[in-house]
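[Automated response] Your request has been received and processed.

Submitted sequence:
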Amino acid sequence: MYRKEIEQYIEDHKQEMIEDIFTLCRIDSQKMPYEEGMPYGKGPARALTEALSIAERYGFAVTNYDNYVGTADFNDKEKQLDILAHLDVVPAGEGWKVTEPFEPILKDGKLFGRGTADDKGPAMAALYGMRAVKELGIPLSRNVRLILGTDEECGSSDLVHYYGIEKEAPMSFSPDAAYPVTNVEKGGLAGHFTGSFEPSDKLPKLVSLEAGIKVNVVPGKAYGIVEGLERSVMDEVAKQVEEETGVRFDLETTESATKITAIGTGAHAAHPDDGNNALTGLLTYLTSLPLAPCGQVTVLHKLLELIPHGDVHGAGLGIAMEDAISGKLTLAFSLLKVTEDQLDGTFDSRCPLCSNEENVLKVVKDKMASIGLILENKSMKKPHHVDGESDFVKTLLKVYEEYTGRKGECQSMGGGTYVHNLENGVAFGASMPETDNRIHGADEFAILEELVVSAKMFAQVIVELCG
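Generated structure:
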């Protein structure tokens, strides 16, 4: 019902949708320091203000929840469907070639720029789905609400604030993943560990190590400073470890020290095998150098045994596991800072339905303790599962099949979506299964036609669930 009208409307308004996406993607909305009235800083607050202005311009009733979350309501009737999208982004990072991160462009049918795929493009596709239903005059007996948040990338504290005020709708979906429908999301342990050791003046020594930008990003670069080693020795080891790991090492020597830049490939921590971890590559390199024995060096050797380069399933930590529904546990060593007397690190693990605090958290805590490190975590995030046989999920799959001609089926994912903690929340779109949008990496993009068909499907879903 209404499919022909919906499809024509979205096609007629495609250029407007592109312009609205670009308006949002020109804003650097990564999490910034708190300012009065702006819990996540100026960037996210500005993006939220702009998005609500766009929604209001199209006739929707908007509400700003203290610059944590904004909403756009179709009508004032009974709640039925919430669509959750986020306007915050990960840091720009390095290595962009097609365009600058916050200078979005359309090239070869792709929208390039930070946030085009995650999640500003899908957010606008959802808004245009609502706009199509509204401007076509299709009657709804219940409300659909677009929820626009600003802290998804750093823990979703925005939704804690929002749902402290509002109740969940009976049904919720987020266009924060890939089609068809993700009804299973792994749990997680963002393992934060610390340690200390006696400083040593013996040469050669590691002065410092620093790697990672966010817990959910596989580091594409890592940095270290070493004193007291011949450059020729360091070059030879660099060559050997590059052959072993695929990570490249750039060395810059001064009179007193050598700075090492390890260059791998960044990726989303939910898919660590898509990248090549510069952090574990640098650890492999440093532990291959003839550094003078000390507590720091001993700990780094033991730490690398627990999380060796290329171990993306937690075998070294003793937590490798899988189940038929949600698949294998994945692990990415994402943050590490080492000085002459302290160590602070974090890994990102995505844990299947069979995981729990006994077989993951306790095991890691004991392993870390065995090498003199302290796992700071007291709990872990539980897995999420929504019944794939519900009328809600079946409707999403039916619409997907009708508009794409593809088989609709439920799937599991390692990356937590925006609806992980909602009782009846699933991920629905907004990219096709085979598309790698380079989310969290350089030259992030969204395929225009995927956003266009998403807007059409979102409109149809709204009609069928709220009509």
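Summary generated for your ticket: The first strand starts at residue 61 and ends at 65. The two ends are 11 Å apart (CA to CA).
If you did not submit this request, please reply to this message.
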